[in-house]
Amino acid sequence: MLGLRSTIDNAILVNMASPYEIRVFGDPVLRKVAEDVTEIDGSLVELANDMLTTMYEEPGIGLAAPQIGISKRFFVYDLGDDEGPKALVNPVIAESDGEWLFEEGCLSVPGLHWEILRPKQIHVVGYDLDGNEVSLEADELLSRLIQHEFDHLDGVLLVDHLEGDERKAAMKTVRELFIMPPEEPEPKKRLFGGLRLP
After folding, report:
1. How far is Cα of residue 3 from the mean position of the Cα atoms in its chain?
2. How many CB atoms lie within 10 A of CB 112?
3. Average pLDDT over the chain, rounded to whole?
4. How far apart, in whole angstroms, are the C-alpha atoms of residue 22 and residue 67?
5. Can you tell me the distance from the alpha carbon of 112 to that of 143, in angstroms, rounded to the nearest whole number?
6. Which listed residue (57, 149, 163, 184) is catalytic?
7. Rg (CA), the chain
8. pLDDT for position 181
9. What is the dihedral angle through the alpha carbons of 136, 59, 65, 127, rounded to the nearest 10 degrees?
10. Residues ≥6 apart with Cβ < 8 Å to 42
11. How many Å apart are CA 73 and CA 155, to the nearest integer?
């Protein structure tokens, strides 16, 4: 990849602040289907580096472009293994198999987690930041991470995977936390001569 790892290593050494703010539930960009990336160039690599810096600051293990307000089909991730940070451009999940129930959270719905059922294994194709075709067999955590970020590219959020009463309760919590303004305390009534006005 075009300098992805070295740029991020340097960014961490100089302790840069997050270049982007993570968009949270209620932001319309999170519900849009992202557009394909048409050109893989230095500006996309720079954006990917900035996204990784933002992701590490949160901290997270994956971040899709729509989560920073950019409606393009790519995401970055880092499982903290020997592979280091990666990016996947215009991904397509070609196959999936099995089931795996696992507690999942999201940087765009911070502080909340739910058990989500997803395919255990997937085959995904796309491009890296050098424009090379990528074909990847992913299992368990990597599979889940890719599916989660892929959802963001299609305007799907974690709560969309919940059903019934669990979904209703989750939506109520999410709306209260991210959409509804906090209730303002009722103003105190003035007292005159020891009397309280109605």
Report:
1. 23
2. 16
3. 85
4. 6
5. 21
6. 149
7. 21
8. 57
9. -20
10. 2
11. 11
Rounded-to-integer distance, Cα 26 and Cα 31, Å: 9
User: To which residue do tokens 């900035």 refer?
Assistant: 50
The DSSP secondary structure of 55-119, one letter per residue, reads HHHTT-SEEEGGGGT--BSEEEE--SSTT--EEEEEEEEEEEES-EEEEEEETTEEEEEEEEEE-
Of 81, 39, 86, whose CA–CA distance to 63 is shortest? 86
- What are the tens digits of pLDDT across the range 109-148? 988 899 999 999 999 999 999 999 999 999 999 999 999 9
What is the chain's length?
Answer: 198
99 catalytic residue (yes or no): no
Element at 123 (helix H, strand E) = strand 121-127
The residue that leads in pLDDT, 11 or 19, is 19
Widest CA span of the chain, in angstroms? 81
**Dihedral of the alpha carbons of 133, 136, 141, 145, in degrees to the nearest 10:** 30
Mean pLDDT (whole number) for 169-183: 79
What topology is assigned to 4-178 in CATH?
A: Peptide Deformylase (3.90.45)
